[in-house]
Amino acid sequence: MNVGVAHSEVNPNTRVMNSRGIWLAYLIFVSLLHLVLLSIPFLSVPLVWTLTNVIHNLVMYLFLHTVKGTPFETPDQGKARLLTHWEQMDYGVQFTSSRKFLTISPIILYLLASFYTKYDATHFLINTGSLLSVLLPKLPQFHGVRIFGINKY
Amino acid sequence: MVQIFRFMPNTRTNVFCACATSDAMTLAPADAGQQQDGVRATVGVSGDGASLLRGILILWIIRLLFSKTYKLQDSSDLTEKEIEEIIEEWQPEPLVPRMSKEKPAPSYNIVSGPPCHKITVNGKQCINFASFNFLGLLDNDRVKNQALQSLRKYGVGTCGPRGFYGTFDVHLELEDRLAKFMRTEEAIIYSYGFATIASAIPAYSKRGDIVFVDEAACFSIQKGLQASRSHIKYFRHNDMEDLERILKQQELEDQKNPRKARVTRRFIVVEGLYMNTGAICPLPELVKLKYKYKVRIFLEESLSFGVLGQHGRGVTEHFGVNIDDIDLISANMENSLASVGGFCCGRSFVIDHQVFALLAQKAISDYVLIVILSQGYCFSASLPPMLASAAIEALNIMEEDQGLKVVGESISPAFHLQLEQSSGSRESDVRILNRIVEYCMDRKIALTQAHYLEKEEKFLPPPSIRVVVTVEQTEEELEMAANLIKEAAQNILQ
After folding, report:
1. What family does the database annotate (chain A) (predicted)?
2. Sheet with B266-271, edge to edge strand ranges
């Protein structure tokens, strides 16, 4: 389902990450973020990479695993009201191509960041923590799980 | 992309070993001088743990890349052959179920002609005690003429929902008139009376919301509740204590789980005049409960619209409750207004909810605008303009019942008849009342206006006819006088 197309999709959120061009747009956004951070003069390269990694993971966590429901009304009387976007993707089917793409890209970003920070200890800790925060919710075992009731309602 | 490992035959070829050495060495690939045995390995400062982690991550990537990718469509576990078998075995059920011998097929009483006061059923002429024609507007000539004019102008149907060229000026006019009549901010029209409340309830109440509804609610309310997929809690018919009991229960549960309570919407659905039992709901107590427990009230006024209240505005006027206290009033136009369809009226932000289909803010509290689609409004053809014009004319007839109003207690021997709506100035009012008095005097009933020294009175009462009843008047004389005054008012004021 692409932008501007008439559709009978009950919840368009499920198909957003399958739309035409969205993966490319995502990659372009990440590179743009990285370029903007690189152009700040007083930041060193390792710091920029860590910042890219951390900001990317933060934003991804926010959009995919924090915000729940849909910004529009759906005809199914609010079935997805308590589900995050990750849980809504493809109606909960695991290991689809978008889910794999969105799992692999933070890992690749992490590996790049760990290379460019020359495996420094502090950077490693920050990057690893950030990566785990964004990888764990993506596991199929964590579908619908809310630890300590955070973000439940 | 950095090379994680490259191993030569004379080195140990274990994947993990290639990524780890026991010494903690920082090697950047640019440091070409640190090559050992031709092995170029990158090592983390934290040593084994970090490289282990990186190894696991790379394995995870490889696993994801090479494992089966699921798509949304393949959810079937059956093979082609099994699917074919199932299709072969399938026998369709009969379109018409077999009728049992005990319950014969339903037979209808056939009405010929309009179901007005005298109705012809199965060939027999009877007095109609069955149709909901409360105001007798079904066979009214003015309504029929207006409908015929509209039929000539617009044709019969609209061939489209409200969003697709199905909105005519008569629809907007009827909505405007209904909103003005009910004294609310806005109103919207539905094309089928049963579907009005059945679409309005699921437009606001979704999964996870709670609706408190009377046990004797009519079938359309029940279907609306079923479609809304909310939690339904019934209270005994017209029993406000039972309602308070379950509201208290809900409050206790809310206190146990306040985060859940903040996202749960609560509604009470009641009817003004219950179709199933003929009882009137106790609206003032309901409004008190509404403010005490923070629930929204949806009032279904199909039978009470045009019937209760001094001007026919329904049960809110009957009890003197402020119309803004009721969040949504929904009514059928098929009873008193003798048309087809229904309407909902309420404050603007409540009604807009049923109309717009665009992005909007989600409800964050009970009193914030929600914007949504009411499916009965948006996905169904609009009301035929002929019926909308008929409804407007019926509303005109209801509104213009301007006559005299009785001021005074019913046991008082002297009371006043004032004009319901003043004609502008005191002199013209006095003149109109004078004409009524003369009309009655010509027919042998002596009435008088209440005269005042206008300049001397501190608080001048409005002009009125003062009627006095004494012990000397007989029953028949009283009847005659009442009829004559009514006739005079009808002739002179209409």
Report:
1. Belongs to the ORM family.
2. B186-190, B342-346, B328-332, B296-300, B266-271, B210-214, B231-235
Helix (H) or strand (E) run with residue B219 in it: helix B219-228
Closest approach of chain B CAs to the CA of A42, in angstroms? 23
A28 vs A31, A41, B24, B65, B142, CA distance in Å? Answer: 5, 22, 36, 22, 69
B211 strand-pairing partners: B232, B267
ipTM: 0.87
Q: Is residue B256 less than 8 Å (CB to CB) from chain A? A: no
How far off is chain B from A41, nearest CA to CA, in Å? 23
How confident is the prediction for chain B on average, in pLDDT? 83
For A21-52, write each residue's pLDDT tens digit. Answer: 999 999 999 999 999 999 999 999 999 999 99
B61 close contact with A: CB closer than 8 A: yes
B110 touches chain A (CB under 8 A): no
Distance separating alpha carbons of residues B452 and B30, to the nearest angstrom: 112
Each residue's pLDDT tens digit, B39-57? 444 444 557 888 898 999 9
Mutation target vs B (from A67, A77, A125, A151; most B CBs, 10 A cutoff): A77
**Closest chain B residue by Cα to residue A153:** B260
With contacts defined as CB-CB under 8 Å, which chain B residues touch A103? 60, 64
What are B270's strand-pairing partners? B299
**C-alpha span between A109 and B61 (Å, rounded):** 12
Decide if B3 touches A, using CB distance below 8 A.
Answer: no
For the full predicted model, state whether its pTM sits above 0.80: no
Measured from the Cβ of residue B398, the count of other Cβ atoms closer than 10 Å reads 18
Please state, for a pLDDT cut of 90, what percent of chain B lies above it: 46
**Inter-chain residue contact A73 with B262, CB threshold 8 Å:** no
Separation in Å, CA of A21 to nearest CA in chain B: 18
